[in-house]
């Protein structure tokens, strides 16, 4: 309805000019700008999903604050002040680009004022600092998908991107997927997948053995590269793992060389059920763009396999690879 308001008044404005006295059309003009103001403050437009926050170079701000009664986020305070009403604290936060949530007093002081704290994070990114039993304050966070849509499983934490109103899950080690729903087969864990279960097309002895191609593995000087490194830098080199029994594979993940900037940028997989026939998976995967970030992919087509090969297609500077498989 608020969106309709300025449009309606625009249509009748010129008619008012002609039909009525000057005072009347001036009042209508005031109403017009009042409706424009309401529209600016209102994030809900028809069936559109409300955005958490909008900030631009012209200093106009919009935010949907969600109240968490009798609670407080105990993090470093960007700015503390006294206000006449908690809503003033909202506007202070919207005007400060580094502010993403606020604490306010739960009740006014003897002079009818509230203390206001502007904070650089929120209850989702600093959940361990959130106190939901503080009788002296209310916490206000900016609404975003973490509150309504993004459910992070297996201990994963939701991270919001306020600028485009999206959210994603940061998964604990051993989990992957949009909601951290996928469980690692365990290549990263030497007690689950033994060194003897790894092999490769070639490897650099002694530091780049196939058994070192485990996600999260680390570089140790004079001991290991912390990843698999083939003897030759050429397309078609592969890292192979034998799962010893047929598993349902739903995802893959890779990292680069933990010591310096070498990584695989594109790879494919081949798989085997019976130890005889190798199948080429019909999709290739984007690899890494730095040495440590885990890049994971859900398989568009889930497969059953015992033996899996990560087949190198392209790389940056040199071929170094750490890998993981996921099920579930």
Report on the architecture of this protein:
- This protein is mainly β.
- Helix content is 14%, strand content 36%.
- The chain is built from 3 helices and 20 strands.
- The chain has helices spanning 4-19, 22-41, 86-95; strands at residues 53-55, 61-63, 65-68, 72-73, 77-83, 101-105, 114-119, 130-131, 137-142, 157-161, 166-170, 175-176, 182-184, 198-200, 238-255, 263-272, 278-280, 285-286, 295-316, 322-327.
- A hairpin with a 5-residue loop joins strand 1 and strand 2.
- It is elongated.
- The model is unreliable at 42-50 (pLDDT under 50).
Mean of the pLDDT scores? 85
Percentage of residues in strands: 35-45%
**What is the makeup of the main sheet?**
9 strands, antiparallel
Shape: elongated
Strand tally is: 20
Overall SS class: mainly beta
Helix fraction bin? 10-25%
Unreliable segments of 5+ consecutive residues: 42-50
Question: Could you list some keywords that capture this structure?
Answer:
9-stranded antiparallel sheet, single chain, 328 residues, mainly beta, 14% helix, 5-stranded antiparallel sheet, 3 helices
């Amino acid at each position: 309805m608020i969106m309709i308001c300025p449009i309606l008044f625009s249509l009748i404005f010129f008619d008012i000019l002609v039909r009525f006295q000057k005072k009347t059309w001036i009042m209508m003009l005031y109403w017009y700008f009042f409706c424009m103001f309401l529209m600016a403050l209102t994030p809900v437009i028809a069936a559109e999903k409300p955005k958490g926050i909008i900030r631009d170079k012209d200093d106009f701000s919009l935010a949907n604050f969600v109240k968490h009664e009798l609670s407080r986020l105990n993090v470093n305070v960007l700015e503390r002040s006294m206000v006449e009403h908690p809503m003033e604290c909202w506007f202070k936060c919207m005007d400060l680009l580094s502010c993403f949530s606020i604490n306010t007093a739960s009740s006014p002081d003897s002079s009818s004022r509230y203390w206001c704290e502007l904070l650089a994070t929120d209850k989702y990114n600093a959940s361990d600092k959130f106190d939901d039993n503080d009788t002296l304050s209310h916490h206000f966070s900016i609404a975003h998908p973490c509150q309504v849509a993004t459910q992070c499983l297996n201990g994963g934490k939701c991270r919001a991107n306020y600028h485009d109103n999206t959210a994603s899950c940061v998964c604990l080690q051993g989990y992957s997927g949009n909601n951290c729903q996928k469980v690692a087969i365990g290549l990263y864990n030497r007690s689950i997948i033994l060194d003897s279960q790894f092999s490769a097309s070639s490897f650099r002895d002694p530091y780049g053995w196939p058994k070192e191609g485990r996600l999260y593995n680390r570089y140790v000087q004079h001991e290991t590269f912390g990843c698999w490194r083939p003897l030759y830098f050429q397309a078609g080199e592969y890292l192979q793992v034998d799962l010893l029994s047929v598993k349902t594979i739903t995802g893959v993940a890779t990292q680069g060389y933990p010591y310096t900037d070498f990584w695989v940028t594109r790879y494919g997989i081949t798989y085997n059920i019976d130890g005889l026939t190798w199948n080429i998976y019909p999709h290739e995967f984007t690899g890494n763009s730095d040495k440590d970030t885990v890049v994971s992919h859900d398989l568009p087509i889930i497969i059953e396999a015992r033996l899996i090969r990560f087949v190198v297609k392209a790389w940056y500077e040199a071929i170094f690879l750490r890998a993981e498989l996921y099920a579930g």
